[in-house]
Amino acid sequence: MNMKTKHTNPQHLFFLSIILCLSSMFSSLKTYAQHEDLFDETWYLEKLTIENDTIYNPTRGDLNYDIASTIYFNSENNGIIDFGGCPGEYNFIEMEFDEIDNFFNTSGIGGFPLQFCSDFWGHFEGLEEFTDLYFNDFFYGYGTEGDILIYYNIHQNNNSSQTLILTNPDNYKAYYNSVFLSTPDFEILNSSIYPNPVQDQLFIRLEDISTVVNIKIYDLQGRVIKNFETDQKETPLDVSNYHPGMYFIKLTNSSNQQKTMKFIKQ
To answer: Which of 57, 92, 101 is nearest to 72 (CA)?
Structure first.
């Protein structure tokens, strides 16, 4: 009985090694592409899923105080995730990306727990409880000893927005959107304020103004401390007698379009 010996073509082996190498390279590039998609993007916290329960962020559609909760991966310091809004203002995470998979390691929350957002617990039902779930249950609290492995994934939505999903070791998930879904079109109220923080005089600049705009200044307790109208592109506001802290400027035009900005009085 004659046995046929199958000879391996060296040329085939060469091309196979090239294919495997390219496949590995593209897989690696795909992973790092996810890293890049995270950077320099403001991600708006929508909800948490914990033990099969879905809990929505009470500030996710906020326009009155402009404190919708966010996270931000800063490309200038890729070892830090900054938190904004509520819950989260003045907090951060130190983290390090995994070199192979879509994970990053973190040792928990750092910053100033509850220093800012506790002032808003009375304005948003369930915000105190949601803050506890977000920081202590999902991110394991402040000053956690040892590394926490967080998995991340980005989904492309039909409306060209993206959804970021973070998953902790307990399979709890935090969902973020790349756009603020409750923000209307404020073209008429294209505006800015400066300097911020401010000591004596704040300037309110309204671009392309074509109508009178009502301006109200609120303190953290929701009290109106100034109410006036302007049709000027730039309006000075004397804040030298304001107590140090955070304030809100609410703009309303004749079409009842509204926009809220915040500033810090030093």
So the answer is: 92
